[in-house]
Amino acid sequence: MKNVIILGSTGSIGTQTLEVVEKLKDKFNILGLACGKNIELIKTQIEKFSPKYVCCADEKDTLELSKKYKNIEFLFGENGLLELAKISQNDILVVATSGIVSVKAVLEAIKNKKTIALANKETLVMAGDIVMKEAKKNNVSILPIDSEHSAILQCLNKFDNPFAKNLWITASGGPFRNNTREEMEKFSAKEALNHPRWMMGKKITIDCATLINKGLEVIEAHHLYNFNYENIKVVIHPQSIVHSLVEFNDGSFIAQMGVPSMHIPIQYALTYPERFEGIKTNSFNIFNRNLEFFEPDTEKFPLLKLTIECGKQSGIMPVVLNAANEVAVYKFLNHEINFLDIEKIIFSEIEKTNNIINPTIDEIFEIDKETRKKLI
Ligand SMILES: NC(=O)c1ccc[n+]([C@@H]2O[C@H](COP(=O)([O-])OP(=O)(O)OC[C@H]3O[C@@H](n4cnc5c(N)ncnc54)[C@H](OP(=O)(O)O)[C@@H]3O)[C@@H](O)[C@H]2O)c1
User: Fold this and answer.
1) Which tens digit of pLDDT belongs to each residue from 337-356?
2) pTM to 2 decimals?
3) If you measure from the C-alpha of residue 206 to the centroid of ligand 1, how many angstroms do you get, rounded to a whole number?
């Protein structure tokens, strides 16, 4: 029986992780849960999974909850997340928060030698060099939840496969794959949120529409698998059946396929390297499938190229890009800007940035804060 703590249990990945755990309740026990502001949902989760520790973003919520749930130890804010990362009885920390709130908790969990099941991309985009160095030093596994990175791990069969030559990350192409830029300019948040294949949180769904998400995934793959950027390729695959591929030195390609469901990569991260039946997803019918693969159009989706470029430059470039993107996406969701303004804001911020190589974790947070402050 392994103990699991989920940061971001009330979100899209967090709730699906609880569904996976529920199906494998003889293997996993929920030791702790952390949410932001969705107090109604955390109450339901407390009653179903009886965690020993619960963390909320705001202290007032924990004070309210502690009146009802007397046997739970309540924590709050970023310090609460750090405390959860230190709990000695824990075996796996699932990082399913959005944004950058959990980056320090991940580093703390690594120092405490906890296995990390990582959904949150921002952790590796902002601080990949620091996080992976600490993970190596402490012999800690960072198991990907992102479906593409899970697919790559399944194809590689281990983290360090000397025969792998190129990683091929698939992308559905998002809701605007077949639209012109003139059309994109007019699309509303509702239209951009209509992802053709996956049901996800709002921020990542907009990131799929601009294709910045694929660039962030390239950065993630660079850190997770220690691959050069030149050996990580993006391929548009509208059917979202092949979740990624690995090309080997003898010319063989190995692909991981299945229905688009996050339950599979979440479960694989929890049970790695074993596999169990777990949640029954819609069965995958292999007959009469049309699988298409196209080169991405970086003229139409320039954020894909820019993001990979920022990854190559490393230092604070991915930090600025990530912060500018987050501010721009929330402005778009709040109807303050139009769809193509997202890229204008990011390009303008990147052009103004003088890179700092090998920033410390404090510098990373400072740059992130400054960038957001300027743009809000
Ligand atoms: N969704 C997917 O299919 C998918 C796939 C691959 C990777 N990812 C990555 O996984 C991460 C989560 O994505 P998501 O789609 O699950 O996001 P989401 O649905 O927006 O959920 C975010 C979670 O983070 C919590 N949270 C936000 N601010 C917090 C704070 N200050 N303190 C504690 N908890 C906080 C939220 O709590 P409340 O709701 O209670 O406020 C919620 O539980 C992102 O980095 C995303 O890029 C997601």
Assistant:
1) 999 999 999 999 999 999 99
2) 0.97
3) 14
